[in-house]
Amino acid sequence: MYKVLTLNNISVEGLRKLPREMYEVASDIGSPDGILVRSAKMHDMDLPESVKAIARAGAGVNNIPVDAMAARGIPVFNAPGANANAVKELVIAGMLLSARNICPAWKYTEELEGDGAELNKKVEAGKKQFVGYELPSRTLGVLGLGAIGVQVANTALSLGMRVIGFDPQMTVQRAWELSSGVEQARSLDDLVSQSDMLTLHVPLVEGTKNLINADRIDLMPAGSVILNFSRGGIVDDAAVLAALTEGKLAGYVSDFPSRQLIGQDKVITLPHLGASTNEAETNCAVMVANSLRNYLEHGAIHNSVNFPEADIPRTDTYRVTVANQNVPNMVGQISTILADAGLNIEDLLNKSRGDLAYTIVDLGSEVQAETIDKLKGIKGVLSVRNLGRPNNID
User: Does the chain have fewer CB atoms within 10 Å around its N or its C terminus?
Assistant: First the structure.
């Protein structure tokens, strides 16, 4: 029986992927094998040695100490693309809110007094204050062409906009999904210099802090709009407010309110609504529950943010997995220990990602505890799991 600790409410559809006859799932459980989390902050948590994997029902993992988990050989899973449609729809909504001055117009109308002819006169007088523009007359720049960025770019193109994108780390899979009508910018500066509207879809890491700063805003066409449905901190709020005051920017739409931004003219702030749909929450929960189950039962890794993709089909063999530092001769040492124990390797997969590597070994006979201890004793090994045959449970 596997134990799974939930740190937030997880969609029922996701929890159904963990069958009750094999999984005990609760918000208060001792010695969990896995953790399911959404927004709970885990950096100060004291995680027990029993934890083998963490799965975040969403895309960003800023609330999880990923490096610390990697050092323990614990994969952290997320749900890339599961909330892409939800975020895409909100980005398009943000573009329309800004282009048509909908928020200030709404506020104006809510404060109108009077009735009949008097009210009609105020309505007609007010609409002149909120003249906007149509999207096909503008160029949208998309920074980051992952699951969300590609959907935003394709949708904006279908709305008649000129769309340009930039992502030096774009995957082949996303390239296949991107419409051929989306133009490629030569650099980030090239992208911002052409963008009447700029939408951001990159993670918040050390290299992306204040990525959109005063210098880059200065490159943008006068009257541009920035949309941030990615993460707070990627945009320099102070630089944005200065550009709005100077008239360089016409608007800023952010899903990440700060005290600086709230209540400012030409700023639309939302309470992190990007993935806040029932559909997105279900999609995320189902994806990470499947990833967690596949890892706990079979040692397969899919959609991990710190370990490489690794999976080979299960057969009627005995499986051992090893997470280790990516250093020379690791597979050789693992194979030697297994051979010395008289174990025949039926199949083996070794994958690496940066400083980490992961090995799946299928063997013809059962692995004894003494052999597992020897594997754990190899310098650079972070964790070892003895999964047994596929019909066995840890």
Answer: N
CATH of 314-388, picked from 3.30.70.260, 1.20.120.450, 3.40.50.10840, 1.20.58.220, is 3.30.70.260
Structure tokens at 320: 């051992």
The whole model's pTM is what? 0.80
Distance CA 227, CA 154 (A): 17
CA distance 218 to 212: 10
pLDDT in tens, 94-152: 999 999 999 999 999 999 999 999 999 889 988 889 999 999 999 999 999 999 999 99
Helix (H, G, I), strand (E, B) or coil at 354: coil
Please enumerate in sequence order all residues whose Cβ is within 8 A of that of 71, keeping only pairs 6 or more positions apart, or say none: 382
Give residues with Cβ within 8 angstroms of 187, minimum separation 6: 166
Task: Beginning with the edge strand found earlier in the chain, give each strand of the sheet holding 381-388 in spatial order.
Answer: 345-353, 356-363, 318-325, 381-388
CATH of 84-269, one of 3.30.70.141, 3.40.50.720, 3.20.20.140, 3.40.50.150: 3.40.50.720
Average pLDDT over residues 201-227: 95
